[in-house]
Amino acid sequence: MNILALETSTSASKAAIYSSEEGLIKVLSIPYVEGISDTITQDAKGVLNLLINEIKEILKSDTYEIDAISLSGIWHSLLLLDKDREPLTPIYTWADTRPAKTVAEYRRDEELWNWFYNKTGCAIHSLYPLWKVIHLKKEEPALFKKACYITSQLQYIFEQLTGERVESKTIASGTGMFNIHSLDWDEDLLKFAGISPSMLCELREATFYAPLKEDMAQLLGLKSGIPVIIGGADGALNQVGAGALKNGIMTLSVGTSGAIRLAYDEPVLPVNRSTWCYYSLNEKRLAGAATSGAGNCLEWFKKRVYKGLGLGYKELDEMADKANIQTAPIFLPFLYGERNPGWQDSRQASFMGIKGHHEIGDLFHGVLEGVLFNLYQCYKALTEITGEPKEIRISGGIENSPHWLQMAADIFNRDIITSGIQHLSTVGAAILALNALGEITDIEKYEPGSGQKYTPNKDKSEIYQDRYREYLYYYQMTRQEEVTK
Fold first, then answer.
1. Mean model confidence pLDDT for the chain
2. Cβ contact 465:458 at 8 Å
3. CA distance 412 to 372
4. CA torsion 118→378→354→465, rounded to 10°?
5. Residue 20: is it exposed, middle or buried by C-beta count within 10 angstroms (0-12/13-18/19+)?
6. Is the pLDDT at 323 greater than 50, yes or no?
7. pTM summary value
8. What are phi and psi of 419, to 5 degrees?
9. pLDDT grade, residue 484 (50/70/90)?
10. pLDDT, tens only, 392-441
11. Residue-by-residue DSSP string for 363-391
12. Which of 9, 321, 389, 454 could cysteine-pair with 416, CB 3.0–4.6 Å?
């Protein structure tokens, strides 16, 4: 069986052909140009048209017969549609922190914090669509008045392919409108935000599928009626692709943003609200934490800080490898605000301890290290609740850098195992499709194999522990009092 796996991420569109017999056959990844996405917003039709062209391109020279399509998209996206179900707004992504001041007003209410968190597993934070809606109603009431439907990036793509108006429960669990216990839209939350249930789609499991529309099949050169699996969020499908729906396997994703995740049979909701809890599939919840700064911080450094020098990541890695770890600047990686563990939307990035002798390699080392320190913060917060995982499987753009992978092992002071598979969440979408169509009967037993193991260097781990304490000092020192006016 051949699956066409499609992923619309924050930074790129991907199409892959996956065979149940041969595995990953072919992948095409196209970064979004500025007119389609600026990370904070995306043009819905632009994303769709790029995906259509990408599908045509990947199928152009292949003789593989496609048996099904499966989708992966971003968590925490918001798209408002008009009465004709046409896009009224851009897609607002997780990186859109404009609602921060609005959100700060609600975050002062401790009782509301607990009520909301214990219902949803989500925080009072601008990345969640419910709070974006509340902000839009307040700041742009004329625009919101025109909105007839509330949807997401993934749902929009699924509807264009199939005509079906349904939403994946996996995507819904990252909206702030979904009850993590009942696994449905929460009536109390909708009333709180002034959202009519008629504005939302009916919910379905990630394995739900509908037939490909005839006109779209003709456009793409595919058979009409082949199943399109609704799928879910790239983070959840990364867990599937990593074979980590079983207990005790932590995934560590370092791509555009970063995240750690563990699968559980019940919601995991700590008293201090330092982590989140979303729905995956088969009654499984994902307890985890995420950072808004990861690969996007590296991209910022390469493009903005040393713009025009033409340095690639390989050259920057080589420079960072020569840096003195003990004296390099500390970097707080909050270019796009903070998610976990502190949930400060308006927190800012900064270098600390820069001196006259520091060079490009020292600064880049600080960026690599700062991203991992924020993820290590999340790791410490999560494992205080769940205990240490049996194994950590890492994936994402970090796999292109042996230097950064070794740093991860040293900072976490744990063996880190690479996936050995590129585009893991896209592969996860294909595995999900095989499960939905009966080719894989027990998705929790799926095991992708492993790549390379990185073992911590004891001496460096001790240095990094000292550096981490310094990072925490600057982290606390730069904590901002939230402004609501």
1. 94
2. no
3. 9
4. 140
5. middle
6. yes
7. 0.90
8. -75, -30
9. very low
10. 999 988 999 999 999 999 999 999 999 877 788 999 999 999 999 999 99
11. HHHHHHHHHHHHHHHHHHHHHHHH---SE
12. 454
Please report the DSSP string for 148-167 in residue order. -EEE-HHHHHHHHHH---EE
Burial 265-288 (b: 16+ CB within 10 A, else e): eebbbbeebbbbbbbbbeebbbbb
- Check residue 77 and give its pLDDT: 97
Residue 113, helix vs strand vs coil? helix
At residue 476 the predicted structure's pLDDT band, cuts being 50, 70 and 90, is very high
Strand partners for 228:
69, 210
The amino acid at 334:
F
Q: Are 299 and 257 in contact (CB under 8 A)?
A: no
Smallest Cα–Cα separation from 206: which of 443, 27, 464, 453? 443
Residues 345-394 pLDDT 10s: 889 999 999 999 999 999 999 999 999 999 999 999 999 988 999 999 99
Distance of CA 358 to CAs 44, 287, 319, 332, Å? 43, 39, 12, 17
State how far Cα 82 lies from the chain centre.
Answer: 27
Report residue 406: phi and psi, to 5°: -65, -40
Tell me how far apart the alpha carbons of residues 245 and 263 are, in angstroms, rounded to a whole number.
Answer: 5
Alpha-carbon dihedral sign for residues 97, 102, 107, 113: negative
DSSP annotation of 320: H
Contact 29, 13 (CB under 8 A): yes
| Contact status, residue 232 vs residue 281, Cβ threshold 8 Å | yes
**Is 40's pLDDT higher than 70?**
yes
CB 452 within 8 A of CB 445: no
Give the C-alpha separation, 435 to 386, whole Å: 28
The answer to whether 240 and 80 have CB atoms below 8 angstroms apart is no
399 with 405: CB under 8 angstroms? yes
Reference 375, options 475, 474, 293; nearest CA is 293
* Helices 402-412, 458-477: inter-axial angle, 10-degree rounding: 80
Q: Give the up-direction half-sphere exposure of residue 331: CA atoms within 13 A in the CB hemisphere.
A: 21
Helix residue ranges, H only, 152-213 = 153-162, 169-172, 187-193
> Given the DSSP bridges, would you call strands 2-8 and 68-73 parallel, antiparallel or unpaired?
parallel
Let me know if 90 is exposed, middle or buried by CB neighbors in 10 A (0-12, 13-18, 19+). buried
Supply the DSSP symbol for 446.
-
Count how many residues are written for the chain: 485
Structure tokens at 161: 């392919």
The DSSP secondary-structure symbol of 398 reads: G
Return the amino acid letter for 268: V
Which residues, 6+ apart, have CB-to-CB distance to 132 below 8 Å? 78, 92, 96, 99, 126
Rounded Cα gap, residues 267 and 119, in angstroms: 10
